[in-house]
Structure formats: structure tokens, C-alpha cells
Please model this.
Amino acid sequence: MWRLIRHSLSSLFAVCIGLSADAGTAPAVVPNGVILVKGAAPRSSDSVTPLPEEGKVADGRYSNAYFSLSYPIPAGWTEQPAGPPPSEGGSYVLTQFAFWDREQQRVRAQVLVTAQDLFFSASSAPSARELMASLRRGVVPQYEIERGAEEVTIAGRTFYRVAYGSPLVGLHWRVLSTDARCHALTFTLTGGDKAALDAAERAMGGISLPKESDAPLCVKGYAHDDNIVEKTEPYLATRRFNTIPVRVTIDGEGRVKHVHVLSAFPDQSDAIIAALRAWRLKPYLVDGKPAEIETGLVFGTLRAAARGSAAGSGRL
Amino acid sequence: MKLRITAVLTLSLLLFVSQAFSQSDPGIRGGPPGAGGPLPSVAADNPLTILKFFNDGQSRFQEVDSVKGTIAGEAGKGLGPRFNAMGCARCHAFPAVGGTSPSVNPQIVDAGADGAINLPPSFVTLSGPVREARFVFFTDPAGNPITSQPNGGVEDLFIIAGRSDAGPCTTSVISQPDFASAVAHNNVIFRIPTPLFGGGLVENIEETDLLSYQASVAGNSFGIAGTFNHNGNDGTIARFGWKAQNKSLEIFAGEAYNVEQGVSNELFTQEHPTPEEERSLGLPNPCKLNATPEDHTNFNVGSIATLSDAVQFAMFMRLLAPPDRSPDTPGGSASIGRGEEFFNKIGCETCHHNRFPSFSSSITPSLDTQKVNLYSDLEIHHMGSTLADNVSQGAAGGDQFRTAPLWGLGKRIFLLHDGRTPDLLKAIDQHSSPSSEANTAVLNFNSLLSTQKQDILNFLRSL
Model:
């Protein structure tokens, strides 16, 4: 009986909707080209603190407030589709530009700007220098090393540079990486057109990446038990087998000021952000004075690489 | 006269030049299927009687199902009440049994077989790929998607109502899902069948090898950083299906038998309702026509017939040889060799990893410590908004897909998870869109000369 009533009620409802649709309301349509159902994604505890993934392109420059980076886009190069969200291993695709030969429908050169959070890198490389050294070791068997690894100075900063290529393919890679807030900030220039690559590399001279910024100090492995005064582990209700890298800013009083979950499911992010708000750590001291710092934590499933560099505690 | 010859020459030269400037998909490689047979050690019947298991599995895989198993030519029992096709080999058909969608879609015939009165949805056509449909969101009664209620479950296309063996399961108690409304609301996505050749080798790749490969490409110059999908209960890496949503061939076989044909079995014991029925009171009782499970161990029969269909489907797939590749077709061996080299260098191979070792096998030598040339890392990757289907399965979100294994690509008619294109160039192009991990690889592809692109296409069709 109830079934019948429910059925007729819902048909009635359908009729009403049908009528209103006739009256001009467009039916709701799932939009194309929008990712509505997300897997693991980044999240942060407020909406004002800059995040690595939030760069912008305007007036011929790519700027990223988190890194205090401003990068002049080489003339004639165009912005390419955005990259994926940050990975479980803390790698970011920040932006990408390419120089197209429209007539031939061919890319002459491109630049990919990435960041690897050094708190979480699978290769356990502690710095841009080590990361480039491991890239060099990794590419030797597959490509021809053209130069490096070597140190170059760009915009007053030390970059580690490796150049390699494949004569058969006719493509060259120039990878330049520098340290910024415990990330390896990397510019990968690729293309067959050496002149375009040279021009793009020269254009990097116009980068602004001030050494002295008001960013908090980054300290690897600070949130280990010896430094924690008070903590509650977040309850993660479902086992999802993902690694959850988290960057936290800790203020001069040892309170968690900001949480950036790089990659987690929404329920996990909620639980982690809520739990971390209650943490208290010993203030980090610089010359005897408490300082604001950022450091990393890993929740969820700890992978071997993360475990390896965590000195047993699971905290990076 | 001389003038005319020069004109013709110039013209043909021009033609030649313009031809040289545009690469194109060579299309399906001709010749024999090069797939569908057993692994070499299985063909050699090592261990003894294993070939019998393969042959038996293969013939059961080709069985056509009816509701009661009593219709001539439809000896399989348990079809429906909801189904997508009448047998595994209807969909896994090309270039041989165990493959994927044939050029003529058998779902059109199955929709009306034995008196059934199904209306094929607009997206299922005679010349289109075999398709399975999922609704993205649950809807209100008017069909408007409710975005807070993700659906994502398989909506079987057809019902048995009207069939001569459907008894009381008539259209007064059961109906097809409202596909027209789902299409109007853009609330439906599609999946085409994945090929099964080499399934046993894929099943026997050790996790350690997958994990160490993943670690070895960390920090690559292509912006690629994939992850794995995991089996919900034991947390091990899942590897089958477009989103690597399933752990093993046997689980997939049980689920497919249940979902595609509507045959309940020892792995999936109840009949398969629509996701909407699941949220309500399940399938209507008059449509539950057989005792469950419909497929089961056949006690007291003896020999190979004892085994259930689901177990034998899995064994057939496990013992299928990987597809043959051609050393020289299309385009010649030099072009194919160069193509593979380009493919490796520009970043395609970072996801489409050419080779893993298989672990030692307790089943047959051809599964034992072999090279598995599947061209996939079995990871799930963000593929961007153009490929996103907004269905989440396990850890895979709306735009994450398992790197499609490329072995057998030379004989694939339809490409990408929904079969949206037959053209390799389009398939490559679709890799690039906001949020995709493959954007750099596609830019690299577009840095190549046309002749180099052609080498890659030749290489791909040689697989």
C-alpha cells in the first residue's frame, strides 16, 4: 500500500517538475570537462595562507605567493593546461608553458615548473642538489648527458643544472633546480629548438625569488615525540591505504597555526586538521628566541620511502 | 609535353611532401588474430591435463546464457533479470575470444533475443563499441542529478521481460533504467571491455616490482606521479579494470558473470539489481526465477565439470597467451624500432611501462618468471577533465584511470575507457587536459616531426 502511495506521490512530483520544466527551467545537466568526483585532493585549514599549488599567471608572469616566486614567461610562450593535484609523495606540477610553431602545429620548446616537497620525497633526497644528482644518475643510461650536474647562479640563487638529450629523438632537456622552503623548485626545459631553449633559459634571469622572505623556517622532522607537548592522533575512520603528507606551520608558542594536507580524502583531511589544532609543541628556538617554523608529518599508510627517512617514528 | 611532365612531377612531389607531413593511424593490423590461444606451456599440456582446463574454460566462456538454460543454443543458465549481454565472449570477442569489443555490437541482437522487448539506449549502436553504462549521480524523480549522491554503479542495459523463459518477470514489475533521461542530463558514462589476453601474467606480477618501479620514477622530468588502487579489505594492490578496481581474475569473473549476464555465483551470490533498486527494496520478487547461486560447484559430477563456471572463466583468462606483436608491420621494423625509442624517451613509457617480470608460478612454466610486456605500470593516474568520468572506484577518483596496457593495441578497434575514438592520434590527444599527468608527454609528442610521430603510431599498431 505504502509503495503504491509512494509511487503515485513520486509520479505526481515528476509531473510537477515536468510542468515547471515546460515552463522554462532547464533540466540540471552534469557539466562536461569538470572533475566533480575527486579522489585524494589537497586541503588546508584556512583559505588565506598561500599554498604551493596556488600560483597565478598574469601580465606575462607566473607568480607563486607561497614560494615568493615570480617567473617571467618567455615571450611568445603560452600557458598550457594545469597539472594534476599534489601527489602522495609531495610532488607538485606548478605550471607549464610552451612555444608552439602554429604553422607546423609543432611544439618548439616547453617549460614545466614543478616542486618536490623534500619532507616527503620518495627518493629521500634532502636537497635540490641531491635531487639533481639522482636525476643525473637516473638518466645516464637512457639519455646522453650534455652538461652537469653543475651549479649556476640565477637571480642571485644557486641552481643545480643538468642538461641531457636524445640525439635520435632530437630533443634536449635542461633541468634547473633550487631550494625553496624545503622544496626542490625545478624548471624543466624541453624541446628540439636549441635557440628557443637558450632564450627560455636566459629569460630565467628575470626570475624573482628573494632569499630573505618572511616565510617561516622549514625544519625537517621537527614534529617528533621529543618536541611534542600535547597531541591527539586523528581518528581515520576508514582504511584507504593512501599516504597522507601534511605540512604544518607552528607558531612561536608551539601551536599549529596552519595545516596543509597535500593529498587525502575529505574525511581524512577533516580528521587531521581537527586533531592538529589541539597539538602543542616545544617552540623552535633560533638564537634562543622562539621562531615560527613549518615542518612535515605523514599520516595514513606509511610507505617504505617515508618510513626510511622518518628515523623510526613515522614523523618526517 | 616536357612542361606537362614537370607539372605532373611537381604535383606528385607536392603530394608526396604533403603526405610526408601528416602522420596517421595505420589502423587495425591485418593478418591472423595473434591472440586467443593458450600460453605455450599450456599448449604443451604442462603440467599434464592443464590444456583440458583451458579448453573447457574457453568453451564455457563462449556459452550463451538463457534464463533457465533450456533454450537451444543458450545452454548457460541464469541470464538476468538484468543483463548487458548474453555471454562473456559476446563482449570479449575481438580479435579472438578473450579480446574486446567486436566491430558489430552483439548487444543489439541480445536486446531482443527470445522475445525480449528491450529498447537499446541511444549510445548502444550496431556499429559502435560494446558498452556498459553507469550513472554518475543518483537523481530526483525528474531525473535531475543530485550531486551530493554519487552513484557510479553499473546500470544494466537490458531486462529479461518478454523473453519466452522470463515467466512472471514482465514489464509490469521491472523496467530498463531511464537511459533517455540520463542522456538528457548528461548523467551517464560508458566503459568498453578490456582485453583479457595475458591475464595470468598480469595477475602474477609481484607487488614489490610494482612498488619499486613507482619509486624508481619519482622525480621524473614529465610531471608524472601515479598511485595504486588497493583492494579494500587486505590493502594489497588491485590491478584489473579501467580503474584497477579489482584484485584478481576470479573476483572479476564472479562479478562480471553477475553484472554482465545476471548470473549469480559463488563469488557474487545474489542477483544484480540497479543501484536504485539496491537503495530501495532490491529486485522485484517475480524476477528471481532461479535458486541461488545460479552457477556453483557441480557436486558429484566428477572430473572437470565439477568446477563452477566462474572458476573456469578465471582459469581460461589466466592461461591465455599474451597477444603477438609484429616485428615489421606496419611500417617496417626500422620505423617500429624508432617509434618505441621515441615512446620511451618522451614520457609515454613512464606510465606505459613496457615490462615487468612475473613471479615464480605454481601453475605453469609460461607464467613462471617471464617477461610481461604489458606497457602499463598498473598505477592509476590523473588523466584530466577531458577523460574524467566522475566515477570513483576505491582510491580512484573521477579522473583517475589505470594506465591502459597497450599490448594487443594493433588489433584494437575502439580506444579509451568509453571507446570514444578508433583513432590513435585522438586517443593521444585526449591525454592532455587540465589536471592530467600526461600533459608533458603529449607536449613532447607534439614536439616531434610528423615522420617521428608516424614511427610511434607504427610502433603502437605493431603491438
